[in-house]
Write a structure and sequence with these properties.
This protein is of the alpha/beta class. It has a single domain, classed as NAD(P)-binding Rossmann-like Domain (Rossmann fold, 3-Layer(aba) Sandwich). It has eight helices and seven strands. The protein has a seven-stranded parallel sheet with strand order 3-2-1-4-5-6-7, sandwiched between helices. The longest helix has 29 residues. The protein is globular and about 50 Å long.
Amino acid sequence: MAEFDEKVYIVTGATSGMGKAIATMLGLEGARLVINARNEQKGKETCTWMENQGISCLWEKGDVGEDEVNARLVKVALDNYGRIDGVVANAGILGLGSVTDLDLATWNATINVNLQAVFYLARHVIPVMQKQGAGNILVNASIAAFKTFPNHPAYCASKAGAVALVKQIAADYGAHGIRANAMCPGPVDTPLIWDSAKAFDDPGTAVENAGKATAIRRLGQPDDIASLALFLLSEQSSWITGTAVTIDGGTIFR
């Protein structure tokens, strides 16, 4: 996909799992990156590793649940690269606990990172994309937007909200050449699924069963999601906007 050469993308939550896979795949296709996560050591290690692969990468630490962090990501991209072709709002947390057991701090943090961060990043990057006459906003949501899981109320609510927000962005800014879409992964073999499994009595069995419960009978891999991300960020999907693409190995209909 030579079309990614020299294009500029911001990827949040890019130090592990799906976010790292997406950023890496973009970078190997020639994109220039601004990556973000909260852990400074992992961030620097990830950026150094990418640079060793010949990828142009800038690291910016911060919690995207804070508006100013998103503003800074956009500024760093513009100051160093002069444009922003796309953003991948990938950062996410689980916030486990039932409605009656979940403390307010956990609820608020989950909503902030999974939903408000999408709004924050969009509101800072959309004016840039409007001036350019083009741009692509991609949100990594979840099948949790459409189905429930034990003790995941904050996560499910935040992901459903993110999908609705994507549709609104697509409707409001399509005339400006801006596309917005969401990916809704099912069970993917990342650190997050193992954290999610803690809501079950036997986490190891829960993860194993999640893979077996898919129609394809395996967990997804981060590169599965990254491949979809590149398609949705590419001109091959130029007539796709405002949609939530389920990528779950056939979990949701079983």
